[in-house]
Write a structure and sequence with these properties.
Blueprint: H1 2-36, H2 40-52, H3 54-64, H4 70-94, H5 100-103, H6 108-129, E1 136-137, E2 140-141, H7 143-169, H8 182-213, H9 218-230, H10 232-243, H11 247-271, H12 285-305, H13 317-336
Antiparallel strand pairs: 1-2
Helix pairs in contact: 1-2, 1-8, 1-10, 2-11, 3-4, 3-8, 3-11, 4-9, 4-10, 4-11, 4-12, 4-13, 6-7, 6-11, 6-12, 7-11, 8-9, 10-11, 12-13
């Protein structure tokens, strides 16, 4: 009982560290954007999304190398993709003026579309490599270079789109941080990143212990619990952006995080020496991939249709469906995650 309490306490402590560091990262990232002249829309889509996904990167690398729990690595990534899309439901609930989908810029459809392609490709290869008949390049799966190329293509397309839409996508604001220099911002940003990295290294070990003491499968723990903890910066950053009225910064951060998450799978595969990563993990992760695809598709429908009605005056029907898919995915992993 004492051991179980200690493990849960460790999980809460890592959640607290990542949550606090996530707030600092978003603030210093915003200051860097202001002082360096980068557009805030671009910062939300690329810089913030990459930084808030730092725990997933560190957790994944630690899981496939030191801890040797590949299921935790893949489960964390797929679970984070699903969890990031669940955050849209929270944003829709918190944004009382109107439905979040009517306020968000339709340019987010482009990053969501790339997300569907990348997540779908990863899910397809999860099914393919479980059969064991697919060749590899040394210990690396053939899917890894393709994922990295798709990610770079997505970044290039999104950057070019951002440049062409910059006048309407970015709202110019007065200087918000006159008392902070770029050097101070970079220093604060670095310290916050170190805290996130430290907590991220700790996570896979906590998850492994949790799986043992609670008699849960590693894929279930990795997908739900580790994903929720490593997605803490996304929650913090997107809610903070929403409070500032920057809806596109919030939604762009979520879709951008999902793109970077799939790129992390390729990095994990390079670091996993026993063979292709997808050949050694549970096939149940494919369910999370397909859930993330369905949720991304619904988000696209919401961004294009812009539904104005709300269910019980709380959230759009799109958000209700997002929540249902998330819960069904969680139930599936609990029952069949092995």
């Amino acid at each position: 009982m004492q051991e179980r309490f200690t493990i849960w306490l460790s999980l809460l402590a890592s959640l607290a560290v990542i949550g606090v560091a996530g707030v600092r990262l978003s603030r210093y990232g915003d200051i860097i954007a202001e002082k360096s002249g980068l557009s805030r829309g671009w910062v939300g889509l690329i810089l913030l999304a990459t930084v808030t996904s730092l725990p997933e990167l560190v957790t994944g690398l630690a899981a496939v190398t030191v801890a040797n729990v590949p299921d935790i690595a893949v489960g964390d990534i797929m679970g984070s993709c699903v969890f990031n899309l669940l955050i849209i439901v929270l944003l829709d609930f918190l944004y009382r003026k109107e439905s979040i989908y009517t306020r968000a810029h339709q340019g987010n459809v482009l990053s969501a579309g790339y997300g569907i392609a990348l997540i779908g490709f990863a899910g397809f290869n999860l099914l393919l490599y479980r059969e064991g008949a697919i060749p590899a390049i040394g210990h690396v799966g053939l899917y890894t270079p393709v994922i990295l190329l798709l990610y770079l293509l997505a970044m290039r397309s999104l950057y070019r789109y951002e440049q062409s839409q910059v006048s309407e996508f970015v709202e110019e604001r007065a200087e918000l941080y006159p008392g902070v220099s770029l050097k101070q911002a970079v220093q604060g940003y670095t310290l916050a990143a170190v805290a996130v990295v430290a907590a991220g290294i700790w996570l896979p070990f906590i998850a492994k212990d949790l799986a043992t003491t609670m008699a849960w499968e590693q894929s279930f723990v990795g997908t739900l619990f580790v994903a929720a903890v490593t997605s803490a910066p996304e929650v913090v950053v997107t809610v903070a952006a929403l409070r500032m009225g920057a809806v596109d910064l919030a939604i762009g951060n979520l879709f951008g995080s999902n793109l970077f998450n799939i790129a992390i799978l390729a990095i994990d595969d390079l670091a996993y020496l026993p063979g292709p990563l997808f050949a050694d993990v549970s096939i149940s992760h494919a369910a999370s991939a397909f859930s993330a695809m369905m949720m991304s598709g619904l988000a696209v429908v919401g961004l294009v249709m812009r539904p104005t009605s709300r269910v019980l005056r709380s959230v759009s029907w799109i958000s209700v469906l997002l929540l249902v898919i998330y819960l069904l995915n969680a139930l599936f992993l609990y029952l069949y995650g092995h």
